[in-house]
Design goal:
Number of strands: 12
Helix content: 40-55%
Number of helices: 10
Structural class: alpha/beta
Distance between the termini: 37 Å
Mean pLDDT: 95
Largest sheet: 7 strands, mixed
CATH architecture of the largest domain: 3-Layer(aba) Sandwich
Number of domains: 2
Order of helices and strands: EHEHEHEEHEHEHEHEHEHHEE
CATH class of the largest domain: Alpha Beta
Strand order of the largest sheet: 7-6-8-9-10-11-12
Strand content: 15-25%
Radius of gyration: 19 Å
Low-confidence stretches: none
């Protein structure tokens, strides 16, 4: 059985590809050691989604036509998902594994990742109750995941008695943040909700701290994990909160075993495991009908502590 794994090597989400490739290879090795899927050994074929939706669609078509994969697994941004769905045209099952905006998605796609509502609800509630946050400002990239997630956040903020005081959507590569920073100051936001992808979150957070906004405004981010935190740096991470279903620092028998197998396979310097690679690992094991080897779906609220995330609460 051939499984095509579609990953972006370029663009803002490219920083998660090395860890996702490693975790997928580990999952396939474990699946094959247990007899494969329905008695068939699994062959993992890697496809490069590139950095644009057109490149992702072309790569998906190549995996089907040239590599003759039986199933397509995608770990890439949501705008690529729409293009890949159109390219696949129902010719193969398409499994989409990372966190995503939730709601209705394209026909023929099975999404297994955690949704924006699952991540936003506990984080916004905690910030309101424990930090007294009432005024929220959203900064996101200008595509489907931040746009839909912002609508979810707006409803949750309203239901919790808070106010969305502003929002700004930035194209990939935008680096002039001064108008956004001015709006955040002017609206006196208590919390800036970051719906920025990968490298975009890194550059924004660095600039945010350089301007001293981290001393006056908290940040609450989705799609920010250990990999992104390393890029942000300890000096720019004060007041940064996240919610996630997986953190490499979580201690449990399941996660300890996963980390031991991961580093035994790829070495101590392997890419840091994170929620994106772990969701792909989980999905591949689910295809084989195996119980999830590492815990998922509990949502953990964590605060950046230097280059680590310290879990404050779990929901």
């Amino acid at each position: 059985m051939k499984i095509g794994l579609l990953l972006p090597r370029d663009g803002p989400a490219g920083l998660w590809s090395p860890s996702t490739e490693a975790s997928a290879l580990l999952a396939v090795a474990e699946i094959n050691a247990r007899g494969g899927i329905r008695g068939h050994p699994v062959d993992l074929v890697l496809g490069d989604a590139g950095g644009t939706v057109a490149e992702a669609a072309e790569a998906a078509d190549d995996l089907i036509v040239l590599d003759e994969v039986d199933l397509l697994v995608g770990m890439h941004p949501s705008d690529m998902r729409e293009a890949v769905t159109a390219a696949v045209r129902g010719r193969r099952p398409y499994l989409y594994t990372p966190q995503y905006e939730g709601g209705r998605i394209e026909a023929g796609v099975t999404a297994t990742g955690v949704t924006a509502a699952e991540l936003l609800r506990p984080g916004l509630h905690w910030l309101s109750e424990e930090r007294g946050a009432r005024r929220f400002f959203i900064v996101g990239n200008d595509y489907v995941w931040p746009q839909v997630s912002s609508a979810v956040a707006r409803a949750l903020i309203r239901d919790g008695g808070g106010t969305l005081v502003g929002q700004s959507f930035l194209p990939y590569g935008a680096r002039d943040y001064d108008p956004v920073f001015a709006a955040i100051r002017r609206t006196r936001a208590d919390v800036v909700i970051l719906l920025l992808l990968g490298q975009e979150a890194i550059t924004f957070s660095r600039a945010f701290a350089e301007k001293g906004l981290d001393r006056r405004h908290l940040r609450f981010a989705l799609a920010t994990d250990e990999t992104v935190l390393y890029g942000i740096g300890a000096e720019a991470s004060a007041g940064l909160y996240i919610t996630a279903t997986y953190l490499a620092t979580l201690r449990s028998a399941g996660n300890d075993g996963f980390l031991e197998r991961y580093h035994a396979s790829f070495g101590a310097q392997a890419p840091t495991p994170n929620s994106f690679c772990q969701s792909c690992y989980d999905a591949l094991h689910a295809l084989a009908g195996r119980p999830r080897p590492a815990p998922r779906r509990a949502v953990h609220l964590a605060e950046a502590d230097g280059l680590d995330f310290r879990v404050i609460a779990s929901f």
